[in-house]
Amino acid sequence: MPKKILIAIKDDFYLKVYSQIFQEEGFEVLKTDNGNEALYLAKKEIPDLILADISLSEIGGFELMRLLKEETTTKRIPVMIFTQIERVEDRSQAMELEARDFIVGTSIPAPEVILRAKIIFGEQKTYRLAILKDFKDAKNLARDLGYSPTLTCSRCGSTLLLFLMRDLSKGKNYFKVSFICPQCD
Q: What SS3 class is residue 8?
């Protein structure tokens, strides 16, 4: 049985793009651009995952999360928060509400959103590794990937972790590599 995702995004372009890529990946897709309708669909359909825009009409994504947590049938549905503009206070609020991910549509490619959903479902293997900050190769790798060679988060100053995600499109022994902040990501 395919996983069911509720995509609740105000912007028609992103709603269409995400609906299409999730359908192509075999998900059953429910979609809306309205917060009240998203709440109704979540209660009625009990999706496996919700991708909720913070700027939905009527009730926004954060209020949607609060209302979902009040219902016994919906309180355990994982929610990925979506926004088009990166704001620290929005990321913080998403973490406080226990969102499973924070998607900035303008900086995260649509296929990566699929991978992040698969991570939530446990279908995509990932590794988070602590590395020594004074290890020369780690500094060079960070620089080559476009990160600070100090290996610290530019937002909060935490030590970055090496993040590996299996890239099954290239084979079982291939990984995508990046650095992530254990506090901000």
A: strand
Higher pLDDT, 134 or 49: 49
**pLDDT tens readout for residues 107-148:** 888 888 888 898 888 776 777 788 876 677 888 888 887 777
* Count of Cβ atoms closer than 10 Å to residue 75 Cβ: 11
Task: Give Cβ neighbours of residue 147 (< 8 Å, ≥ 6 apart).
Answer: 160, 178, 179
Give mean pLDDT, residues 33-56. 96
Per CATH, the architecture of 4-120 is what? 3-Layer(aba) Sandwich (3.40)
The per-residue DSSP string of 49-90 comes to: EEEEETT-BSS-HHHHHHHHHHSTTTTT--EEEEESS--HHH
- Identify the helix (H) or strand (E) that includes residue 31: strand 28-32
Q: Where are the domains of the chain?
A: 4-120, 126-180
User: Is 78 within 8 Å of 120 (Cβ atoms)?
Assistant: yes
Reported as half-sphere exposure (CB side, CA atoms, 13 A), residue 131 has a value of 26
Percent helix, strand, coil in the chain (nearest 5)?
35, 25, 40
pLDDT for 50: 97
